[in-house]
Amino acid sequence: MIMARILITSAIPYINGIKHLGNLVGSQLPADLFARYMRARGHEVMFICATDEHGTPAELAAAKAGKPVDEFCAEMHAVQKDIADGFRLSFDHFGRSSSPRNHRLTQHFAGALAENGFIEEVSEKQVFSIADNRFLPDRYIEGTCPNCGYDKARGDQCENCTKQLDPTDLINPRSAISGSTELEVRETKHLYLKQRSLRADLEAWIDSKTDWPVLTTSIAKKWLNDGDGLQDRGITRDLHWGVPVKKGDQPWPGMEGKVFYVWFDAPIEYIAATAEWADAHGKADADWERWWRTDKGAEDVRYVQFMGKDNVPFHTLSFPATIMGSREPWKLVDYIKSFNYLNYDGGQFSTSQGRGVFMDQALSILPADYWRWWLLSHAPENSDSEFTWENFQTSVNKDLADVLGNLVSRVTKFCRSKFGETVPAGGEFGPREAALIAELQGRLDAYSACMEAMEVRKAAIELRGIWVAGNEYLQAAAPWTVVKTDPEQAAAMIRLALNLIRVYAVISQPFIPDAAASMMAGMGTEDWSWPEDIASALQVLPVGHEFTVPEVLFRKITDEERAEWQQKFSGVRA
RNA sequence: GGCGAGGUAGCUCAGCUGGUUAGAGCACACGACUCAUAAUCGUGGGGUCGGGGGUUCGAGUCCCCCCCUCGCCA
Fold it and tell me: Which of A8, A29, A140, A465 is 20 to 30 A from A427 (CA-CA)?
């Protein structure tokens, strides 16, 4: 196997609150699965995530919490970091889009784009709230709809009659933030990224990605071709919290007091976070640049992004336009794995309504592995999928407790009672064992192929099949019967089965890292080497090797618990 | 209204460029086993593949129309 270098990024979660399970399964979790698998196969991996911290919602959330926005973001970053650790998300670095690295890099990209003629200054009129001392984004202006008379219409659209509005259309407009009616229209200047000038480049690039999921390319092409086609995009805002507008390290005349739009600086944070990683580990710039600069070693890097479908336009068009327009040799993404939505019990997960299970709540009721297994084995790859408590309970109980957990239990306890807690000697492998080895080799190849291709659900099915094969073997070999007449032969069977536990720990680790660690600890080894060859992998634990019977790996979810949680999470988040 | 994704066994889903009796897991029934977390293993019942046309020797798989769900946009 040739060692490869793989750069993996997960869409970066917004700072203003804790994410729900739908967000988790749409980007961070599958990205982690892929990162863990690639590391397990011996590849060099750089797995990057961060918090997305700028913009109006962050400012408002901070105000609501009664804290300065920078302090609020620092606290929420720590909270999200803890939860990510709780889910065992194995980021090499979990950065912050508000970092000095991202400030400098964002300003650098803007400067380069301007130099190459891809930035246009546009003067436009926006609503300014005197009481709030700030410009108001359209959706933060409320008033009476001129069309239907609804008195809580927003400046971008009336939610009652769905008519598209301009803020100036509203009757008796007021600030949605303070309620103040002291509003005035002011002239303000903004920078636009001339995406239309890069349209041909973008289209050619996307057309060259024939191996991308249809979900990814269909969304990209829609934005490229729909209506009037790809539009130029404003990349600055009249806000206080954000990356100050600069042309590289120089001031940008006329843009004083403005910041870059959150969607401009957020993807750049992928790069900046890698630089933050280098800083945090006392490494040189060359150490992160070899992942991102094709002129500095990134030519052989494979870059894979994970995200929900709502993020696809920014990753297929806006961010690539930023990179292409810089005319600098930054690494473009090689593969975009995108996901549909996970629904919750007949409806949508909703952050604003607190509907569904949020990441902190999930960890408070069950260990990470339960969630990881269910979410990954039901990842919304081909269409939206649905979380129900009944499905969660049966899947987890059956797959984890019955098929895998019980297998570990029956093997180790049987050995302990008949041979003691060491790998027993005697006997030889026969045709039945040879058949098992052949089957496992074939199934493992299929599993690996799915993991390489990021076919998450299929990989889970293959892995489960491998677990089942172990039970099938035991059932057919029946060492509990054989031991009565031929203890040596039974010993050979159990020797194989104990080694099987180690193999299962290694290959299951990307899905269920904690259980894998328990299995490995029980087997008394730290040999995580991937079972390239099953026959030899099943001899890693030698005769006489000591092990212990692990605690129950997965306890079952009871009907009472299921009913309780179903009730608890049906309504509004406390 | 436009666009995109879907509508396959009770449930959750597989089914690439059309090809013999449409698959898996769960649930259900029966049987085997008793080492194990009342776990495991085997066998079986169950679907006119949203509806209607069409192309074809042959369509869940291609074309047209319609219905329904979800999302995005206007």
Answer: A465
